[in-house]
Design goal:
Rossmann fold; NAD(P)-bd_dom_sf
Length: 263
């Protein structure tokens, strides 16, 4: 490999990246990290007004309406993206939706919605994006899981703030995302499509941080690095997995948790 190739390992210039959930707390950092490295990013979401407020000056970050809960909407969004921007090189499944948090009182409907919001929606987007990646001759899929797809919650962290208790359908769905990643990495390897997963640790939103410093302290106490994650801590993992630097990486779960899951 030439020196020039080494210099451009992390370049995303000329790459079209599809990102669901791209205007949320962590999604913003992911989108901006990718765009900074040269990617053209299309955020797939339902709220264009929020997108416009979030990305006021980024000319390489675009919006396309898409409801990941609805197959027809995903299909229409992908067709529109191809018509406007061309074939995608990368799909990032970051969006999720859920309802209910009390571990032993979730209704059947709440549990099913939580599974759909993390696991089924990820499968739905993979399935519908595959024809586009195949026509391109390859590409990359990056799924987003959670540390609670790897380990069980430490419930003592929630004693003072039970409203923040992580529910069982969330962790179950995120564990499924990790296995789905491995499955499709094996299935799609011969087609030059790499499938990987990013597992964030404790990245409480600004609203949660404002509501309870005690909760943030409880989380920080359990993290070997001694602090909660910040959005910029996460962006680099997506740049790596979207770039040529990860061309020989597939089926991997990249954990970005400050060390939470090592204990």
């Amino acid at each position: 490999m030439s020196n020039l190739s080494f210099a451009n390992l992390f370049s995303l210039r000329g790459q079209l990246v599809l990102l669901t959930g791209g205007y949320g707390y962590l999604g913003q950092a992911i989108a901006r990290g990718l765009a900074t490295h040269g990617a053209s990013v299309v955020v797939l979401g339902r709220d264009e007004a929020t997108f416009q407020t979030t990305f006021t000056a980024e000319s390489t970050i675009h919006f396309q309406f898409c409801d990941v809960a609805d197959t027809a909407s995903v299909q229409a969004a992908l067709a529109a993206v191809e018509a406007h921007y061309g074939l995608p090189a990368v799909l990032i499944n970051n969006a999720f939706y859920s309802r209910g948090s009390r571990p032993d009182q979730l209704t059947d409907e709440e549990f099913a919605l939580g599974l759909d919001g993390s696991l089924v929606s990820t499968y739905r987007c993979i399935r519908e994006a595959l024809p586009y990646l195949r026509r391109r001759g390859g590409g990359k899929i990056i799924n987003v899981a959670s540390m609670y797809g790897v380990v069980a919650p430490d419930f003592s962290a929630y004693e003072a703030t039970p409203q923040f208790t992580n529910p069982p359908h969330y962790g179950a769905a995120k564990a499924g995302v990790i296995q789905l990643t491995k499955y499709f990495a094996s299935y799609l390897g011969p087609e030059n499509i790499q499938v990987n997963c990013v597992t964030p640790g404790a990245f409480p939103s600004p609203a949660v941080q404002e509501q309870s410093t005690e909760f943030v302290e409880q989380l920080s106490r359990r993290i070997p690095l001694g602090r909660i994650g910040q959005p910029q801590d996460l962006a680099g993992s997506f740049v790596f997995l979207a770039s040529r630097a990860s061309d020989f990486v597939t089926g991997h779960n990249l954990v970005v948790d400050g060390g939470w899951t090592i204990k």
